[in-house]
Specification:
Elements (H helix, E strand, L loop, with lengths): L5 E4 L5 H13 L4 E4 L6 H18 L2 E5 L2 H6 L4 E4 L6 H7 L5 E6 L2 H9 L4 E4 L16 H12 L5 E4 L7 H5 L5 E4 L1 H5 L3 H9 L3 H9 L1
Parallel strand pairs: 1-2, 1-8, 2-3, 3-4, 4-5, 5-6, 6-7, 7-8
Helix pairs in contact: 1-2
């Protein structure tokens, strides 16, 4: 399965805010949404995931669930993104459908190697720069960090940059060999940036279709 080059990581302090933002992201052309709603009871996440699934299905947008692989299976999301160090992708794989994607978060070359050994479908590598959307932030990687890790890995598995990324960073990040970008605050602040990200990433499906018909 091809991993879209742009991931929107959902934001919102309440389920209502989360759903409004997911709706706006889908309406603005997001190809993949990762539902991230932390520090709440699993029941709340399940209810939110079901509603998010309805929205994303309507727009034919892919939906990943952050950390809760059992919920990802229950709502038939497109996959799970395991951010929590205690989440084991091997265990998640046993629980989930064979067609569902599994991604994992990495901060170091060693993290990436561990995830690749577990045959994840993609890696979210970051943070690119300081960001307020995540607590206990690990060391910032920057362009030099990405370049070093990508060169050492030599992998076909997509590596998605994450952490405080703006549209102005895209060209430089892609030059390191990174496959795509995950953004949260930049998109929530202005959903029109999805179109700009797509143009910069060459990821908009309409452009791909145009190329096909030439």
């Amino acid at each position: 399965m091809i991993i879209p080059k742009l991931h929107y990581i959902s934001q919102g302090n309440s389920p209502k805010e989360q759903l409004e933002n997911i709706q706006k992201a889908c309406a603005s052309g997001a190809e993949l949404v990762q539902l991230r709603f932390r520090n709440v009871a699993e029941k709340k996440v399940l209810k939110l995931a079901k509603e998010a699934r309805e929205i994303t299905a309507h727009f034919q947008t892919r939906l990943l669930i952050n950390d809760h692989y059992k919920i990802a299976k229950e709502v038939k999301a497109d996959g799970v993104h395991l951010e929590n160090e205690n989440s084991n992708s091997t265990i998640a794989r046993k629980h989930m459908y064979t067609w569902q994607l599994i991604g994992g978060t990495a901060n170091t070359l060693q993290d990436c190697e561990k995830l690749l050994a577990k045959e994840v479908d993609y890696i979210g590598l970051g943070p690119f720069r300081f960001t307020t959307t995540k607590d206990n932030l690990p060391p910032v990687l920057g362009l030099n960090g990405y370049t070093a890790i990508i060169e050492a890995l030599q992998t076909e598995t997509p590596i998605i940059a994450v952490g405080g990324i703006t549209t102005e960073d895209v060209a430089d990040i892609l030059a390191t060999g990174i496959s795509g970008i995950a953004a949260s605050g930049e998109i929530t602040h202005n959903f029109n940036t999805i179109k700009i990200f797509h143009q910069l990433l060459n990821a908009s499906s309409t452009r791909e279709q145009r190329h096909t018909f030439k």
